[in-house]
Amino acid sequence: LAFADRGRYMADSDYVPMPTKGLLDPDYIQQRAQLLATNKRLTTAEPGLPPWDHASIQTTDEAIELPSTTHFAIVDRQGNVVSMTSTIENSFGSRLMVGGFLLNNELTDFSFRSQIDGVPIANRIEPGKRPRSSMAPTIVMHNNQPVLAIGSPGGSQIIGYIAKTLVAYIDWGMDLQQAINLPNINNRFGTFELEQHTAATAWAPKFEQLGYKTAVKDLNSGIQAITIAPKQLTGAADPRREGKVIAQ
């Protein structure tokens, strides 16, 4: 449901009047959550109608969103916090190197189709426009102070990887490394993707009994995170990739 809303409404806010407040409105989120309060699968995951105070009719996009991304988190001794995700979008990016750096190919984050049945797509290509991205470098605040820096590579699966870890760490009270290590389960477009060679695969028959399609596959998150407490920093790296915790 979140991906359906994202595909319909989210794009460069300099070009598209995006209903950000409406999408985050607690009443609207509760309405969307109630669609899941059944013992049967959703036959379709359609975008909703969040409240907003300006009109802009859009339709759902068709962005490719390839991976080839990295993430790092840094906290220095002065208390500055950085959570940075960087991508070149495709293997070797645009295949052009300048000054020792490969140039990215972020055009694939746009929808190459501009409209459907005359209704414009919010994330269509336009000159000077920023493409919508799944990158989710996150700094969690508590009492106006940073308490966690986190992010991951992984294309459009990044959103699920970060959400899983935040829920496990904040809501379930798990250790940060344990939260990262939890098996990944994502549902982006109606099929439940279950991380192969993990306990997630045991959920396949349960989802299928509800009527969902499942796919057991490699869900190669690469979460890097640092918790920030008074006089103590704790780093954790996803064992699925080549991440590493370094302290000086």
TrEMBL record:
Organism whose genome encodes this protein: Photobacterium kishitanii
Stored InterPro entries: GGT_bact (IPR051792), GGT_lsub (IPR043138), GGT_ssub_C (IPR043137), Ntn_hydrolases_N (IPR029055)
Entry keywords, A to Z: Hydrolase, Transferase, Zymogen
Statement: the UniProt record of this protein carries the keyword Transferase: yes
Keyword Transferase part of the UniProt annotation: yes
Domain of life per record: Bacteria
Family recorded in the similarity comment: Belongs to the gamma-glutamyltransferase family.
Pfam families to which the protein is assigned, alphabetical: G_glu_transpept (PF01019)
Name this polypeptide is given: Gamma-glutamyltransferase
Molecular function per GO: hydrolase activity; transferase activity
